[in-house]
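User: Okay, second chain of the day. Same drill as before: sequence in, structure tokens out.
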Amino acid sequence: MNLPNRLTVMRMALIPFFLIFMLCDGIPHRYLIAAAIFGAASFTDYLDGHIARRDGLVTNFGKLMDPLADKLLVFSALICFLETGRASTLGTFIILAREFLVTSVRLIAAEQGRVIAADRYGKLKTVLQIVWVLYALLSMWVVFDLLPPSPASYSPAFFFGDVVLQLIVVILTVFSGWNYVWKNRDLLSDLK
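Assistant: Same drill. Structure tokens below.
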């Protein structure tokens, strides 16, 4: 197994640790630790792709598992955010639906021997999802571990992450999904 594929596997292996720190009360600074794990896992996404392209190490395993690992990582954060009230159900549904739609189009393309790479909007969507998750985790750490308990002390930080960043992510998610389907609409022409 080459280095990019090992990094992909490592990203997937970090997800249970992320979940433990997100969901187990009583662990000091758990949101900071979860942010560090999520950040490290997200960095492996950049690193494995960079190394694979640079060194010509693109494999079928990587083509399949790299996007799956990315989705599992983001989905794990979204599900935890639903649990903690940091994400809206509608926003989460839209993000999940977009990912299933794009994956379906990719599967149709694969059946026809085509490989569809992520475009700049899809990459920007992923970066903004990572920024949103990290912001939310760090704001939760500050509010719950560093500040004295007071609803007024955390409302602006949570409002920005829970509403503003999440809304930007959802809008870009919808746009990137629409753009992806529109650019590959020829694949869907026989579905009339």
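Residues 3-191 form a domain with the Four Helix Bundle (Hemerythrin (Met), subunit A) fold (CATH 1.20.120.1760).

User: Thanks, on to the next one.
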